[in-house]
Structures
1.
Amino acid sequence: MNFIGKSVPRKEGRKKVTGAALYVDDLTFPGMLHGATVRSTIARGRIKNISFEGDIPWEEFTIVTAKDTPGENYVALILNDQPYLASEDINHPEEPIVLLAHPDKYLLEEARRNVRIETEELPAIFSLEDSLARKEIVWGDDNVFKSFLVDKGNVDDVWGRADHIVEGEYHTGAQEQLYIENNGMVAIANPRDGVTVWGSMQCPYYVHKALVKLFAQPEDRVRVIQTETGGGFGGKEEYPSLIAGHAGLLALKSGKPVKIIYDRAEDMVATTKRHPSRTRHKTAVTRDGKLLAMEIVFVIDGGAYCTLSPVVLSRGTIHAAGPYSCPNVRIRSQAVATNVPPHGAFRGFGAPQSIFALERQMDRVAQAVGLTPEEFRRRNFVQEGQTTATSQVIREKVEMEALLDRALDLTDYRAKRERFAADNPSSRVKKGIGFASFMHGAGFTGSGEVYLASVVGAEATPEGRVRILAASTEIGQGTNTIFAQIAAEALGLDYDLIEVTQPDTGNVPNSGPTVASRTCMVVGKLVESAVLGLKQTLIATVHLKEGYTRSEFQRACAEYIKAHGPLKSYSKYQPPPNVFWDDEKYQGDAYGTYAWAVYVAEVTVDLLTYEAHVQDFVAVQEVGKVINPVLAAGQIEGGVAQAIGFTLFENVVWANGRMANNQMTNYIIPTPADIPPIRVYFEENPYAYGPAGAKGIGELPMDGAAPAILSAIENATGVRISHVPLMPEALMESLIC
Amino acid sequence: MSKPTSQKAKVHCIVNGEPAILWAYPMERLLDVLRDQLQLTGTKEGCGEGECGACSVFINGQIVNSCLVPMAQVEGASIKTIEGVADADQLHAVQQAFIEYGGAQCGICTPGMVLAAVDLLERNPNPSETDIRTGLAGNLCRCTGYMKIFESVVHACGKQIDA
């Protein structure tokens, strides 16, 4: 058997290519109503009155307000500050206030427009600068959701003796996840049986936790079932808990199944986006280009409620100093409140923001010292035995220089830099090439995995098939396929004998959320040990001997089940040995391991239109053992495409705290015609604590494209840009001013 | 989505080779009628404004966004959806290639993307890379970065030529 490193076909591929896969909007129940959300019209204020107007048969409608919440009126997550339905206070312009349900979805839409919410408006703030300046206090005592301080060595001792000190400020914008399947949920609820929801989601147990509180029900009377999910990218990490609650409230009050499906405009305007950020850097270096001190101040705009901002901030903070060795590092970070809809998880989770700033700053420092960007990095890459910003000793083989060499060779980087320098002065279309080097930690930060204490089950059927029981969701990234590969490999069985169960909290244990590049590395490892538990049971009970065949295994399962009843095995997370993390000081082993990468972008900038186009993109990374090359490359290519969008296409236009361009017509993501060739290369250093040596992969490709592309644009035009998205208008201003 | 104002009327058409009589408002979207009345849920709504191509279907051999097609326009038409692409259990070469070469990830754009690729190969059995990019430019995918979709199409046309 050898299923690791093979591109076996996707488990649910056939359903997807034939249109047979069932997504939430494809479900219908007898007597089902459609649900809609009536939202605030102002960014901040108080609700004075709600009236139901127009020529609408209101008596036919199920109407839910904050008064109808049976339990806690908050979305249980970290700080529990976000209400399911605003009762008095409005904190952002898309705040849900009233829910409506009716069998006719056309009439429902008419009705939604005829609910009048009278308000008393209060001054609102819409930028992290205004929040930091406390122009208004809109959350808590000081607008601050969370702060971190990472302090290694002492940066203050260094400034006086440094040969160069370089300062810079960098900004990144909001970004919409834009999964092609909009958010949606169907719920059935009654006082006797509790609440069941079906829907599009990444984290069934997040939804479960939130519904238990909202409906004041015991855990076994709340059931959450994931339907086929059309992309997530973080956008279906915590927002589904809100929609599930809304559908459940309408279902409870009406006594009928209720479906809420957002249309694209509502999904874009109301649900979470990537946190906008501002990063300030002050870097001290010696004249030969060795880093002496890095002082970094990283701020993200969390929007109106806390949601996941503390953990997004944590990841962004830890990645802010990158894959470099520096003896003195101080990182201060804050997540602050504004009156925009809450920002949330999006692939990379804070790291793309802080890595963008870092890599732009490293280019600037290299220039100040008089070194090429690549030579400056070579002199500072962290090596095995050295420490990161959190004083984590790197105990694995790290070969950033080798990755850099390979990436520069693959792109013919040096020759192109020379050629472009010669050709550009006489050409209207300027060419440039640039790169970024970075790392991404896999799994939850610090002690997060220990707190999660994830569990995976494996069950043998009488037919001798093995079912994986895990809450990890298939959202396109390949969970079903890689879990089956890992299990098949561990058991020495065929891939087709492994089934991965649809996540249903009534049937699968809590394997934690499907986030943080943890599904393959952390949960996959539990899959491996759970199925090995099955095998050990069969061997210990003398139903099976090592060296078994497929049919011997199948017979052993049948015999065991006949003799002893169901055969199941569960495995619970155990941290790797010698991992230490100090949550107070933010020092120690931030992640069990990291993926390492160097990405190179080649661009053209047309000085007639001021459009920048990425012409070629090379992604070289080390992600441990690659389980499935086609799926792994698919993760990198997809992530890079999103990151190209983040850099050059995707501009959220804000108007009084509301996204003004909430349509695919004017919020542009890359199309098949826009995307450059994305060439993907893997180095493999197997990780001892990952399944078959695998590490995390999903978020990594979001981190490197933005700084690589802006470095290439700087190479092409000589203009140093410090913000994304970079729209042609901004590039024009930079070039002519 | 606003309330259709006029009365429902009968619409006769052929869907995936079978005659169908549909009862619909003239301005009702073909997308909704396919999904709600015929349970052909493989046709997906991504944007509702003709940008993403997830709702692609063929009408009289021409690929269209069914979210932009009112029922009044399909009287007498022959419609093909993703459910009509495979020949019973025999997948179309494009579908098979999407499975083998990673053309489908989350799957929500896949029905539309498969139809766009089928359309392209019917018009141009031996497309260049530029032809593929142009041929699929009306369909958005957020997962793949398109590389594996292009590869799938290349392999599908190889198979068609072999066959």
Note: The CA atoms of residues 65 and 126 of chain B lie 25 Å apart.
2.
Amino acid sequence: MSLLEVDNLRVAFDTEDGRVQAVDGISFSVEKGKTLGIVGESGCGKSVASLTMLGLTRSMNSRIEGRVEFEGRDLLSIPETDLEAIRGNEVSMIFQDPLSSLHPFFKIGHQLSEAVLTHRDVSKGEAAKLAVEMLDLVGIPNAEARSHSYPHEFSGGMRQRVMIAMALINDPKLLIADEPTTALDVTTQAQILGLIDDLQEELGMSMILITHDLGVVAQNADEIAVMYAGQIVERSSVEELFFSPQHPYTWGLLGSIPRIDRSSEEPLIPVTGQPPSLIHPPGGCRFHPRCPYVQEACSTEQPSLETTGGGGTHHSACLLSETERKALWASLEKSPDPASAIAAAELKVARR
Amino acid sequence: MLEYILRRVLWGVAMLFLVSGVIFVIFYLLPSADPATLRAGRQASPDQIERIRESLGLDRPVFIQYVDYMKQIFFHFDFGYSYQYETSVSSLIFDRLGPTASLTFGAAILWLLMGIPIGIISAVRARSLLDRSTMVISLALISAPVFWLGLISLYLFADDIGLIPILPGAGSYEPLSAGPIAWAGPLILPWTVLAAASAAVYARYLRSDMIDVMGEDYIRTARAKGLPERKVVMKHGVRSAITPVITLLGLDIGVLLAGNAILTESVFNIPGVGRLVLDAIDKADLPLIQGVTLFGAFFIVIFNLVVDIAYAYLDPRVRYDDL
């Protein structure tokens, strides 16, 4: 049985401009010890989906449907107090901006031990000791002394280490990392990803890694779900996704990664156009207004996520036939624009 | 930090000099009346008035008067003698400070006790019926003039003229030395009236602060940690939102001690600093006006400093070393 199973999750918010369908029927599962990468551009609903799993979007203005089953319990229907017992304990979360995500007025040692004291029956002294151990584990030098510092006294990378320590202090079964490296510079980003990877192995937890950066998931994920306008448009193993991507949007994402094996003169190929409105999403396939391979049926018929190969593990939601897509991808890969060679190279490195 | 405090104190002293100079100039450019004529009585001859002017030292150049006045304060802590009371200004002020401080601090406690919980609840239940109704009421309280509110409260509750005569009315002030109950009883109405508008201001202020804070990322983190919502609000939320309120409190107390409770003191006939200064202006009692103004400026400077120091303790990001 999977650790986490999300079934047809839908999240909508009532706003003054109308109802925003931020997440529109997504399903996926996370296996024990594995990492699922959720990839998509800003505003595609990936963060909302993850916050909803922990009940953090519950409010008067939100409508949440579907099921999020964690070890057999539906997180969407259990009462708030039960959720509180799970949050930060069995399922933890780290966020994009570590400075704004840490309380500016409390010492970090206090913020960490607070997480312990919320869930465990230990003394303040023990909690403080655990906090220092955890800070040490995530590579904060001189952890004992630094636990008395305030968040603003740390660098960006160190702050994210603090956030990771706080998320992992209760030994969670699942870590949801929402753009954990987006606010960091590239070298720090690599360190933090490496750290997360090591800790995941050490603690044997599962992870959902949310990012807009395919390079990040290439290194860390086992499975990838590509989200577009609140829906999952492609889901497969990492290898499958990078070697035979099936959805035009995924091709677009791959084409916008810079590549070392290509001349720097060669332009990156962005996905043209703007992400669609989630209040009035386009009819038919949501990607059709931006899709270079759009056909007539695309504007009326909504594609569903269907198995397209990869031994039954590769799913894609596109109206193009499998043969058409294969042919298109083969020609794309040969042509000097988007291809996945760099991603494949990264993959080899990551797989050691 | 110490250096910062020292620098602020020096600035404060400079500020007091400036204030005293400005008061002198204002008084001479726009006198409320001629002190000598007022003191001379109804049938005084020009000669008599002239003699009084001389005895008060008012015939000398303004600048000399000012330097003299400052010298007395600086070397003898002597603020001169009031023209009308013929007692030392400092003893007059110290006598009046008790009632004003009683009024100010009591009201401050009351408005905090009302404003803070209302602000927090309104923020947490933002846009609810409770929130909307408290915000409407608070707007009404802010808009209501103090003297009107004071008179209404006397009309309703004062034991001499009230419809429901349950509380001591105007002019019944007793010092704390008369016993805590005798002291507090007559202050209940003035405290409530003075606190009403401030409680409303603080509630609205804290509400909007708190709504901002509750949208911060670190509040989401606190929730993601699994903290119960009550603790998220009361600890993580309030800790941030209360800081600006403390600032406001410091400044408000300074201003009230400086004599700004003048309307409340007048309505309830409390012998405080506000009434003293009103009287002094009426009688062109320059030494008294000067004294009260300087004391007021002193309180404002002091409480500003206290606020800044408190801020450094409340917000660890604020450090004054590099200012």
Note: The first helix of chain A runs from residue 46 to 53.
3.
Amino acid sequence: MPGAIYAEGLVKTFGDVRALDGVDLDVPEGTVLGLLGPNGAGKTTTVRVLTTLLQPDSGRAVVAGIDVLKHPEQVRRSIGLSGQFAAVDEYLTGRENLQMVGQLYQMKAKAAKVRADELLERFRLADAADRTAKTYSGGMRRRLDLAAALVVSPPVMFMDEPTTGLDPRNRQALWEVIKELVAGGTTLLLTTQYLEEADHLAHDICVVDQGKVIARGTSDQLKAQTGGERVEVVVHEPEMIAGARDVLARYGIAGRGQAEVSVEDHTRMLTVPVSGGAKILAEVIRDLDAVGVEIDDIGLRRPTLDDVFISLTGHAAALTEEENGESTPKDDPGGRGRDRDVAKEAAK
Amino acid sequence: MSTVNDSLVIARRNLIRMTRIPEMILFGLIQPVMFVILFTYVFGGSMSIGGSTDPDVYKNFLMAGIFAQTVTFATAGAGAGIADDMHKGLIDRFRSLPMARGAVLTGRTLADLVQTALTLLVLAIVALLIGWRPGYAAPTNFGKVMAGFALLLLLGYAFTWIGALIGLSVRTPEAATSGGLIWLFPVTFISNAFVDSSQMPSWLQPIAEWNPFSATVQACRKLFGDPGLSPSDAWPMTNPIWASLIYSVLIVVIFRTLSVRKYRRADG
């Protein structure tokens, strides 16, 4: 039996561009699927097809047990959509926005009002309920947008890059809301460019690139697929990069088509996948010392989804360093990405 | 799913928006008032209506034309509003909701109808203040005057659907505003609105007489008891009330159908 969200062979072309090139998805009820990929990978197009906004050229999709192409109007009753751009009317107050959406979900005016008040309370917008959305901060607008998507507590939710552009505090807060939702049994498809977001929230992850799903599995499965740990080294001077690369190349485990040593010139950081655990670290330090490479920082870490992405696509998730840095919560409880931050601090 | 209910919810949304941007309503009121005053006092002395050059006759002749032109200007507002909506994230929200497909458009045109009614009310008061007298040339009564205004509102409503189609066809609200206005000038000027169309070149006369816009103007003059009824024996001029009704309903049916179809197909 197909899951709450099911897609088979979705294809959509815009002119010469194959935005979707045969996307298959299956999301079991009550779970979260993270659709992970760079800009233009086809994440938003997938969401638009599944939420009835866009007709695919071919393929089949079933949401909440209803055929999306045959009965779009029935699908719309069972879904909530929270988009990349907060879809609220900025000249309406928070309360008016939610009431309107409630009524358009065919609730009676009075019930819509009651529900609006509940949601405003839950999303910490009660104080701003009677101000126009124009006056809201970015985080408040996102919360209002998410509240609008939840007016009827739909069994299936779609969130297209829900935290893009949010500061770490607001991002954390939104993560908490999402977790609550899922704990309540909602099936969620979440798109994100942020690897740690998928890591944090999703049960299963589909990595998409150029309109295709190029890998799927749990976060752990994907990491295992990418190989063991990595040694990360930050050298003291840019001139030392070449020497360090030669040393690290000796420890790299080749195979699975991955580049041996990756170098980030401006942070003077080198990374290489290794096997052998902590004792390798001591050997690397000794060898680097022997060839006169001074190091600012060195560490051993498990592969992140970043690494997964690079090893699968041959390029990083399309983020600038600034965005990436901003997106890494400093108080990340799992400690993911901490090593990188340390490396960056060292590089300054 | 209720088309009426959803349309009213959207209409309410647009009316709230209008009250939050009051300068839009204000400009919408100033423009026709300016037209009334300019036409009355600048052209009034040099126009000949039915052989009379009395400025008072022109003033009474003019008002139906200005009223009709004013209601058609709602086209631009509707077009710009819809074009604006179509390019914001909000339209994705609407299109993913279990609501009637045409409601986003119908709601907008209904809100514009309310605004048009308000504009018309202010304009009628100004017209009365500067000397428009229903019944000036022929007897009339309150019911007939109201029927005239009803025809005007219907014409305005019909034209907002043309605006809706324009708004759905262009990329920006600015384009919808100009696209909604440009063609209104020939339509409203090649008519009996501001001049006696029997004085136009003979090749232009039939165009003016069969212009849907002229039918409403002629119908209003007849209902208001205004001077300067077109003596033409073209059918819309001899049966202006029917002609006005038929034209307006036809425009609504055609442009609503086209607009709703375009809205449904829009891939955003």
Note: Chain B touches chain A through 27 residues (CB under 8 Å).
4.
Amino acid sequence: MIFIDTANHISALAAKMAKPHVIAAYPITPQTTIVERLAEYVESGQLNADFIRVESEHSAMAACIGASAMGARTFTATASHGLLLMHEMLHWAGLARLPVVMVNVNRAIGPGWNIWSDLNDSLSQRDTGWIQFYASSNQEVFDNIIQAYKIGESEEVMLPVMISYDGFTLSHTSMPVEVPEQSKIDEFLPPFKPAWKIDVENPITHGNIVPPEPYMEIRYSMQRAMERAKKIIEEVGEEWGKKFGREYDLIQEYKCDDADYVMVTMGAISAEARFAVDELRKRGEKVGLVNLRTFRPFPYEKLKYEKMIVIDRNVSPGLGGVVYHEMKKTGKDLYGFIAGLGGVDVSYKDFERIYELAKRGKEGWYPLEVK
Amino acid sequence: MVSFRGEIVAIKDLPLDEYVLKGHAACPGCPITIALRIALKALGKKTILVIPACCTAVIEALYPKTAFNVPILNIAFEASAAGASGVASALKMLQQKDITPVVWAGDGGSYDIGLQALSGALERGTNFIYVCYNNQMYSNTGIQRSGATPYGAWTTTTWTGKKERQKELAEIVMAHHIPYIATATIAYPEDLFNKMKKAKEIKGSRYIEILAPCPPGWRFDMSKTVEMSKLAVETGAWVLYEVVNGKMEFNGYSKRILEGKERKPVEEWLKMQGRFRHLKEEELAKIKEMLDEKWKEYKKLYSSETSPDK
Amino acid sequence: MKTAISYPTVGAMGKTGTWRVFRPSLDREKCIKCWRCWIFCPDSAISRDEYPVIDYEYCKGCGVCANECPVNAIEMGREEK
């Protein structure tokens, strides 16, 4: 069935179809319409879940951790400062290996208050042990959320999953989305089987003091799970393709085969970059596009093109674009651009200019300072 | 002996079950494990403890072993009430309604860093018991001042004695209109047991605060933990009461004080503790004045609760 | 999958009786079986049999039992190693 709706309403719908037992969330712009819709689903009886209207995002994540540790499937959603407030608990969910699924609507960080999109909020959660997906369309938002449960809850993974997408550009923009029947989703997504749980019949203690050596083993186990997640993400993406006609990988490549230059982007700007590729191709430029679907685990093995133009809608002050620097591991020629912070529009025209600048060997803050 | 209300009134009648195993990591003479032993005898096997950073998290001992025979979810310092909200929701959704989620947190995690999560959970009517064991400082990190540290007390962050009064968390909790609130000490194990038992039978948010005199933190001999608790009640430095559906009732020795029994001089309690050794005359006078003022308030509450038109 | 899961163990922190400096000993003649020593033991190291039984493997020697005994049936003596 085709739904025409905003990414936020599509998120709520996807969450509902994944049948979580417990939802704990706190409102924040531009995420609010997700929690409003979920509250409506729960109160009208369309979704049999307990919705905890927590008093902060920190508590939202803590409640999801508590519920997930009991063996319940959980969902939450946040944005920007809300995500930053959760930071401590994100680490906790990660190391506890609880497959909580969360939507983060990307929004810039203050001061001053800015409600428009950039990716600094979610990229600041880089090392929390969360799998991170980025979506560039409302369809991807839906598909990623359902797949997130299957990936996170895989016994080879057991990690929490964050699905990020740009505030307003996607969150409040209606697009057509193909939504499968509930029965097909149920076939695809089996019930959550926790790797461990709090149970009065088997009174374990989770999370007491861990000495250095086993602590390092626990960290190593998490690293291994992240590595295995690459394979699981591919498998689940392939299965999704077979069932629903849209196949997914860690990255999405567009017209890369014969490309001399490949642009690398993440999030909603990928859609604009794709249009720029078409325009540039019309002019005979051999250019392609890689949209990073996953940021964690980072798919560096798949970024095999000789010349890559990386457009970061984020910045790590004192270093530069986060994705650009992560990509140095590929050993390829990279041209880094920082663009679109705090919701600055990055149109296909900008991508065309960035491409021309990169071809001349330049990089930097677009359009402020490009050398 | 069992009273007509089904309350246990003699120590010998308390259950033999032990959920705090021998060989845990508490300091000798620790009040927390005494309180936990009594509380878990009342709560029983079908209890889930949610524990933030605090002494109890250390008492559990080191991975891969634990000194507790009930399941425990450890969680970040400020997050226990929120974590327990998740546990309570999951219990409801997974049809495990005979299990009691219990937060077991110190005063730092309750009065200070965890106050927001506690208030939120109480306001939502979370179906859980929240226990604050109050040792009046951050003991786990090495005796630092907390919002529960009394005026005049030495800590490692108040070298010349705390200059401010402690706040009254139970009174803040009262403003949340929850069905059950109680204060207790380990000195009266039957009272603590009965309050736990009573809390277990009530649905909704329940709050119990237990005074926990800490030998290394308060600077007294480790054999005096129970005596220190008892003296706190007898001098009025700690008060025993229950608030059931908004109705306040003083208990035990505290009730007897309100009925006319004289409070022992608070100096008796203070002089047993090294943390008050430096007190000047005027500081002692101020402590006594504040205590008198507090008991005037209690007296007023007591009279209004026991007045015939109530 | 490895996370910080711990299992209930008697002696999780080892034989804590080795921490003891003063050793409680019970005089059965004096004991009135009020069980105050049992309920107030912070270490669950006193169990109930005909008389209180002190588990010296785990008793940390805090002396709460002796302090709380209403008939002075428990005496604390320096531990001899």
Note: The interface with chain B takes residues 21-22, 24, 48-50, 52-56, 58-60, 62-72, 74, 88-89, 92, 198-200, 202-211, 214 of chain A (CB under 8 Å).
